[in-house]
Structures are given as C-alpha cells and as structure tokens.
Description:
The structure holds two protein chains of two kinds. By secondary structure, chain A is an all-beta fold.
Amino acid sequence: EPEVTQTPSHQVTQMGQEVILRCVPISNHLYFYWYRQILGQKVEFLVSFYNNEISEKSEIFDDQFSVERPDGSNFTLKIRSTKLEDSAMYFCASSDLSGSRHEQFFGPGTRLTVL
Amino acid sequence: AQSVSQHNHHVILSEAASLELGCNYSYGGTVNLFWYVQYPGQHLQLLLKYFSGDPLVKGIKGFEAEFIKSKFSFNLRKPSVQWSDTAEYFCAVANSGGYQKVTFGTGTKLQVIP
C-alpha cells in the first residue's frame, strides 16, 4: 500500500540554524500539507500546498517557514532560523483529488529538537 | 473557523469494558469527520471517516462512530476494548470540497488495563 514517507525521523539542531524536513507524498496525490505537534499538545495545521503554491497557511507559519516541491516527488519544509519553540513532531500529509473526499494520509513524522 | 472539542483527556478502562469518546465540532458548512489513532511511538493512523451517507460509520479494529448532525457530534465507540487499544485518539474535522485543512481535537489518551 502506498504511504507517505518522511526523513529524517529525528533531527537535532542548534537554535538559529536552518533545517529542512523532507517528505515524499503518495505519488498520484496533488495536495500536500504540513502539521506539527508540540509534545503533549494537539496536532496543528501549518500549511497546505497545491499546484506549486501555498493554498492556506496558519498564523504559526510565519516568514521563518517555507515550503517547496523541488521535483516531482519531494515536498520540503524549511525553517530558516530555528527557535526553541520550534521543537515538535512535524507531520507531512498528502491527499488526492477524488470528488470532495480528500482523505489525508499522514507520514510517520520528523521529531525536531532545537537546543 | 472550524474547531473540535474532545471532552475526555485521559480515560482508563479495564479490558473488555465498553468505550465511548466524545467529540463535538463547530463549523458552519458541510464537514468531513475523522478519528485518528496514535499508538505509542507511532504515527497517526486513520481509524474511520465520515463523508456522507450512513451516519453510523464502521472503522478498523472494531471501532465505530456515529455522526449526529443536530448535536454536532461524532463520538467514537468500541463495545469491548483490548490492551492493544492503548493509544491517543484524535477527533478531526475538515471542510468538504476543495483542499482540506484538517483541524484536530486535543486528543484523548486511552489506557487499557489488562
């Protein structure tokens, strides 16, 4: 069964450093998303991406964040200058276009630890 | 803006007990509703979903949920829980049509005691 994959599974970085989290969505999917889950809190929407542009972003997704689909298979989330509060689990998701039934499939997540 | 409320933050049950986790949502339009499960150390997995049709939805591992539109509720049920059901359960809502932003509830930690 096709699945969303994410790398790395765990990323440790120093405050102020740039990180890039990588995702490979399911191959025929057209909509891509990033969510994050701070430890002990709920999963929060960050951004959705369709047709090579951002469809919607939350207030969390400020200028420090960017997303890119650099080729036909990868979808990346970049944090330019990480802060301690960026420590969280980051989930990528993708969905296809089948009427209104855009079920999202989630990847296993990348745990980001900012020191 | 859509929102989701889960009433129970932590539930402890003995094996074979029945489970019902409450979920209420707030959204003005047509919604799609989901329950996700996150087993310890694992990623989110879809338990079941409601898009339209029969409001009683059956999912994997014996779970079911009932959509009651008048109450804006989508409660999750299982007649007899097992130790392996120990996990965190998230109710979620997404607007119908177009791309979807999924809004999650705060989650309910279920602990099943053997």
